[in-house]
Amino acid sequence: MKSPDVRERWESFRADADERLTAAKATQDVLAELSRFYLSLQPDQRETVDDLLAEWALSDDAGKRFDALSVIEDQQVRSALPSLRALVEKLGGSKEPSAPYERAKVERIVAALE
Question: Which residues constitute the domain of residue 8?
């Protein structure tokens, strides 16, 4: 499967799981489904998804960022470390009330991956 196809499948899977499980009031299950789907991928497909997760870690979309951080942490996606470090810096300059908490979370993920 070509890289764009994997990216599209991942994005479609996430959107579908989010919609379906939000309607079922089981949003916590989205993260488990994403991890299971990640594990079902071939190594070359995982590399493509790893790149996408690194992009999502820096997204302004809090939902995508949350999901990416979860999968990165759960699946130990070390290739996302540069993006996570950039996110720590970005959050350090943010005036959002949740920024210090999210920054602490990202710092814990970075420490675990290093």
Answer: 3-113
